Amino acid sequence: MVDFGGWDMPVDCCGLIAEHMAVRTGVGVFDVSHMGDIQFRGPGSLAAVQKLCINDASKLQVGQAQYSAMLYPNGTFVDDVVVHKLSDNDYLIVINAGTREKDVAWVRQVIGGMPGVHMNDYSDFYTQLAIQGPRAAETLQKLTSTDLSAIRNYWFTWGQVCGLPNVMIARTGYTGEDGFEIYIPSDEATSARVWNEVLEAGKEFGILPCGLGARNTLRLEAGMALYGHEISDTINVFEAGLGRYAKLDKGDFVGRDALVKIQADGGPRRKLVGLEMVERGIGRDGYPVFSLDGKRIGEITSGSPSPFLKKNIAMAYVPVEFGALDSEVAVEIRGQMVKARVVALPFYKRPKKST
Amino acid sequence: MAYPAAYRYTKEHEWIQIDGTTGTVGITDYAQDSLGDIVFVDLPKVGDAVEGGKTFGSVESVKAVSDLFAPASGTVTAINEALKDKPELINTDANTTWLIKITLANAQQTDGLLTAAEYEKFISEETGH
Is the N or C terminus of chain A more exposed, i.e. has fewer CB atoms within 10 Å? Predict the structure, then answer.
């Protein structure tokens, strides 16, 4: 167990590689209750969400979610989030555990004084479980009468799960696989019971409980950002390659002016790239990246062996001129320069379902 | 986890099997269990000198890098080539998967090394079971 943003969490339960492979080939379950849940209620909710977040929440239908982010006025990240439209007057924003207090304070500050909206931090009310993998739907379907096949990717609904009424069932996740996140009451007895029922339901598919280690390698393969690594308060939206989520024409939001200026000035000077180690060695978080002629050009934000792809992969910020696909760079690993190659993100895309 | 009585151990969780002037070095079962799935081993070359108590390489799991500390001083005479492609052999059987063999600088040197019983006591104190 390790301390993760103040939470006591397992790095792994059964072995990182086994857990990772269970999610890629069968199903795995994560306790992600450490994530935060901010809810906006009232007729002014949409306006509040639109001011706070970069994506266009007015495009959401009830039951739909979108990846988004909150920015500082200079265009850098407060946090990345998933916005859920519960009703016209009701939005749920799921935020990171490590940034929860900061996010809540930020939200209060930004929307303070906005009419018709009330914000509540519901984080402690929910246990959140993520059931992920190609067999996730079959696993969860055993525990609910809600037709999961009717829930599209990044949509959600409410249904009875493990006998509990009104459980939010969202087709979202952080692994690059199909999967669901369910939000159940956070009392220990309920949480433990549902956890065990999920494990039982997934047994025939080889379900494993998964820890932070597998969570990290899965999202890395899927090219997904982690706050404090690929996104932070020193990185802007375009550098992170997330410009497509910033809807500059939706109206004003915090950070919009900075983004417009960055674009007008010719775009970001550095960008997030994928790296694959070419020579023997593992480039890890924080390792410096050099051009082949010996100039330090950046550093790895997240790097690790890839259990599914069986390569050593990393993401790193480099000046845009070094970011072309197949460019070669060097990663300094304990004093040695080890060659790596720029590759496309994401490293892994799940196979398309043949219907 | 069994710790062969014939070996000697370091507090950094390496073992050494001494046979005359030859020392065979590996990491303990406790070490492989703590590391998790081992994916990479970085070993010295044949002919390199290693110094007792100093690092001679590293072993990496998916999530972390761990230095290897030499249980004794000597010269490397062999490295386990199988670990280049199959580092996970260490997880399968840490007690018999050797990393390097050395010619000892001081034959039968066991100063500062723990017996199997002392090592077991040491790790039970470290982990609290």
Answer: C
Would you give the distance in Å from CA B3 to the centre of its chain? 12
**Distance between A212 CA and the closest CA of chain B, angstroms:** 10
Whose tokens are 């895309």? That residue is: A349
Torsion of CA A109, A110, A116, A119, to 10 degrees: -60
Amino acid letter, residue B3:
Y
Tokens (6 digits) for A102 = 């900061």
Q: How far is CA A191 from the centre of its chain?
A: 23
**Segment A213-239, tens digit of pLDDT:** 999 999 999 999 999 999 999 999 999
> In chain B, which residues have their Cβ closer than 8 Å to the Cβ of A210?
none
| pTM of the complete model beyond 0.90 | yes
Q: How confident is the model at residue B129 (pLDDT cuts 50, 70, 90)?
A: low
Return the CATH number of the domain spanning residue range A269-347.
Answer: 2.40.30.110
> Considering only CB atoms, which chain B residues are within 8 Å of A314?
none
Selection from B112, B120, B121, B108 nearest residue B4 by Cα: B120
What is the dihedral angle through the alpha carbons of A279, A284, A285, A291, rounded to the nearest 10 degrees?
-20
CB A119 within 8 A of CB A129: no
Is A14 an 8 Å CB contact of chain B? no
Question: B8-106: which CATH topology?
Answer: OB fold (Dihydrolipoamide Acetyltransferase, E2P) (2.40.50)
Instruction: Please report the residues numbered 200 through 259 in chain A whose beta carbons come closer than 8 angstroms to any beta carbon of chain B.
Output: 213, 216-217
Find which of B37, B65, B66, B67 to mutate to test the A interface (most A CBs within 10 Å of its CB).
B37
Do residues A299 and A288 make contact, with C-beta atoms less than 8 angstroms apart? yes
Where are the domains positioned within chain A?
Answer: 2-218, 269-347
Task: Find the CB nearest B62 among A217, A280, A334.
Answer: A217
Q: What is the mean pLDDT of residues A175-192?
A: 95
